[in-house]
Every structure is written in structure tokens, then in C-alpha cells.
Design a protein that fits this description.
This protein has 235 residues and is of the alpha/beta class. The protein is built from 8 helices and 7 strands; from the N terminus they run βαββαβαβααβαααβ. Bound molecules: NADP nicotinamide-adenine-dinucleotide phosphate.
Length: 235
């Protein structure tokens, strides 16, 4: 199967790419930086692209995927966490930066993909429990993931031949968690406290350990309504 994954240079996207490559799938990865460990796989294809450079995306995809007749699976994984802070201390500029990558780049990418690739079987957008939990401090990140869930629901109605899901992947020890671990005002932000206590335990596995479970969850998503939000921890 041909699989497109965004954000393959590190974290969840890297773990998923490795997992699918080991199973022999053709993986098309996109991120700004390249993770050379994936060069060991001849079935890995890489495009270096800043997904926030919206005007470049359609042209880049045409060059990258122009000859690809079908994508069995698209995983919209690239994302950033916002600076953990109260809403009143969060600038509109910060919210726009996070929305650009976590939401609008996926809108531009989905439109360009359907213009470029004749058949797309399944689209999974990597969301977060933060889309629905509204925890103090999660400001732009929560807004972006809640909007991403609705974006996926809306696209599901427009493309009934493709199965869409927004999926919370669980808690994984990536660069995002390193940032959260470095936050000092933890009494103010209870979820920071909780995440810090999980770091280094098996409740926060490495991307390599978590990826097979996420891939397994993805393989079972088609039994849920297209456009829905699912959490790996409930599947
Ligand atoms: N880790 C968790 O516990 C957790 C929990 C819930 C949800 N998630 C979600 O999982 C996804 C992956 O996050 P992660 O934890 O694996 O973090 P990560 O290690 O920081 O990975 C983020 C990936 O996104 C890519 N990316 C970021 N900005 C980009 C841009 N402008 N253009 C292209 N690629 C860009 C990065 O590549 P470059 O920097 O090379 O461009 C990197 O490959 C995110 O959507 C995140 O919200 C993570």
C-alpha cells in the first residue's frame, strides 16, 4: 500500500514511518528536516517541505506524488504544541502560528492531495485528547485540535469515497513532551504536572514502542463513522 505521512523527521510520524516501512509499504514522508535513519529503507520517499508555506504545497505535491495512482492511507501528523500559558497571556500571533501548522496546512494539503492523486482510501489526522479536554494552559493547541476534528468531519461529507478520522494517539515521549517537561509553573497547569509524572514510565512510551499500537488502531478505524474523532486509548 502507498502511505503518505507528514512529520516523519521525529516523534510519532517517524515511529509510524518505521513501522509501515518494516511491513513493506511504500511510505511517502514530508517534513522540513530529513531523518537519515529512514534512508535505510528503499521503500521510503521523502519531500522536504515547510507545510506552513501554503502557496508551495500544491506544486510540491505534484512533483512528489504526480505519478502515484492511489494512496491507501494518508496520516496528517505534523504538528506543534503552543507555549503552555493562560489564554489571556497568549497572543493572537501565537494562536495563528499554531493554527497555520496544525489546521490550515492540513486543509491546503487535503485539497492538493485530492487534485493530485486519483484514489485516496483513508485519511487519519493526528489529533489529541486536548481537542476535547479544555485543560488550563493548553490555549492555541486545544483550539487547533478541536478545529482539526471539525475540519475532518466536514471533509468526510465532501469525500464519501474516502474514510476520514481524527485520532488522538495517546501520550508518547517526543520533543513535544520534552518541552512540557521543561515547564516550571506546573502548579498552575495540572496537566503539565500529570505529564511530568508519566515521563520515563511505560505510560509514556517512545515513538518506536507506541507506533505499532497506533498503526493497529488505524487499521480498525473504518468501523467507526467517517468524520468522527477517536482516541487510541478507547479503541
Ligand atoms: N507526543 C504526544 O504525547 C502527543 C499527544 C497527542 C497528540 N500528539 C500529536 O502527534 C503529532 C506529532 O507530534 P510529536 O509528539 O511526534 O512531535 P514532534 O516529535 O515534535 O514531531 C512533529 C513533526 O511535525 C513536523 N513539523 C512541524 N512543523 C512543521 C512544518 N511547518 N512543516 C512540516 N513539518 C512540520 C516536524 O518536522 P520538522 O520539524 O522536520 O519540519 C516533526 O516531524 C502532532 O500532531 C501532535 O499534536 C502528540
Amino acid at each position: 500500500m502507498n502511505i503518505l505521512i507528514t512529520g516523519t523527521s521525529s516523534g510519532v510520524g517517524y515511529g509510524l514511518a518505521q513501522s509501515y516501512l518494516q511491513k513493506g509499504h511504500e511510505v511517502y514522508g514530508i517534513s522540513r528536516s530529513h531523518n537519515e535513519a529512514l534512508d535505510a529503507f528503499s521503500n521510503f520517499h521523502f519531500l522536504s517541505q515547510d507545510l506552513a508555506a501554503f502557496d508551495e504545497i500544491a506544486g510540491s505535491l505534484e512533483g512528489f506524488l504526480g505519478g502515484v495512482g492511489s494512496l491507501g492511507l494518508v496520516i496528517l501528523n505534523a504538528g506543534v504544541v503552543s507555549r503552555i500559558n493562560d489564554m489571556k497571556d497568549t497572543s493572537l500571533e501565537e494562536i495563528r502560528r499554531v493554527m497555520d501548522i496544525n489546521v490550515w496546512s492540513n486543509k491546503v494539503l487535503i485539497d492538493a492531495l485530492f487534485d493530485t492523486v486519483p484514489e485516496i482510501g483513508q485519511v487519519v489526522a493526528i489529533s489529541s485528547g486536548a481537542a476535547v479536554s479544555g485543560s488550563r494552559g493548553w490555549n492555541a493547541y486545544s483550539l487547533s485540535k478541536a478545529t482539526l476534528n471539525m475540519l475532518i468531519d466536514l471533509y468526510a461529507k465532501e469525500h464519501p469515497e474516502t474514510h476520514f478520522t481524527a485520532l488522538a494517539p495517546g501520550i508518547i515521549d517526543t520533543g513535544m513532551q520534552d518541552y512540557i517537561y521543561s515547564i516550571e509553573e506546573e502548579e498552575k497547569f495540572p496537566v503539565v504536572q500529570k505529564l511530568k509524572s508519566l515521563k520515563g514510565t511505560d505510560k509514556m512510551p517512545s515513538p518506536e514502542k507506541a507506533a505499532p499500537g497506533i498503526a493497529d488502531a488505524i487499521s480498525r478505524l473504518k468501523k467507526f463513522p467517517s468524520g468522527s474523532f477517536q482516541d487510541v486509548r478507547d479503541l
